[in-house]
Design a protein that fits this description.
Number of strands: 12
Structural class: alpha+beta
Largest sheet: 5 strands, antiparallel
Shape: globular
Amino acid sequence: MTKAMPQRRSRRSVVLPVLALIVGLVATLWFYQSLENLEEKAVMRHVEQLARFVRIDVLHSVDYHIELQQRAAERLARNGDVERQAWHADMQMLRAGYPFYHGFAVLDPDLQTRWVDGGADLLVRSGTVSSVLDEYREALAEIVDSRGFVVIHPQPIDVGDYVITFVHSIGVGEDHRGFLAVFMTVADAATAMVSDSFLEGLDLRISSSQGQIYPAAPMPGDQRGIEWLDAFHLDLDGDGTGFRFEFGLAEADRRELGSRLPEAALAGGAVVSVMLSIIVFLGLNASDQARSLQSSNKLLEQEIRERELAEEELEFLVTHDPLTGLPNRTGSTRYLERFLSEGERQQQQLALLFLDLDQFKDINDSLGHQLGDQLLCEIPRRLAGVLKERDFVGRHGGDEFLIAVRRGNREQIEQLVLNILRSMDT
């Protein structure tokens, strides 16, 4: 019996350390995987927040430049055969301000080239423009009767980059005079439209139905091991194709973004699995890391909220007249789209009225612009006395106002017109 006790103690001295080692290794492995998951989620949130910032930047920039291009097309429509030299001067100013504008071309209604500027000359002479536009004749015919545009799929150019072509109608309907083609280089546009601070340590890839267009395809020896974590789709003209923006992290950047805590926990737990103090220490560090990441995420969310407020303020400035506070031409157009779509579901007469002040220019010239501004501000107040709350009033431009109403019959609309004219005479 005295021999059995040492044998049992010997077995316990072996079994217990082994059990303790197994338990410690299992606990260490579980703890390591938990930390890995926490960091993985934190990295994903970080990338998603940055991707959202990039999307807001890109959408805002694209909307701005499409509006800029449409104004250029509208100017050609208004001025008719504007002097070629003046047109070139305007296009050179655009290219100087925005270097990613590769070139411009003015086309006849039958897609024959009239004028070219910048890098568009090489594209026209090579036959690239005419061959590509032939594929889009049906889409181009649709924008002749609307204020839309067509985006041509990316085309390679001789500098190793891709060019995206925006085509706008010069005049609509019976006033159609041709098309304005705008060529933008993908690499320069992506660099200019996305803030460097959002892409620091983050890889961006843009692709279309033609394949990857930004950046240039990686060399065969590129072993950075980029993992693409988030993406969004941008369809500019609603044709169902568009562009895909993807965001990823290279292995080296991902290691820098994360911490060494999981590896430290694994190594420390394997070596000193019986030391509870180390496990507690690692747990506290994990908690601190989680709080730090949570604080960073809250800061990012606050920045997003501030940016959204700025976007809403910018949207109001874009769609409203600063003098009268009424919706401007852009805001009126957006409202009328909703107004017309809602009118299709209601059994009421729709009326669109234009109110133009006679001899307003004489008032400005004789009594001064300040009095003219006061007169313009008086118009909405008088209209409010005869219109209903749901009726719409917008300033179309200058001394022109746009009124949209919905009434039960034509007689009510005619009576409303008489009431409006009386309110202007008093």
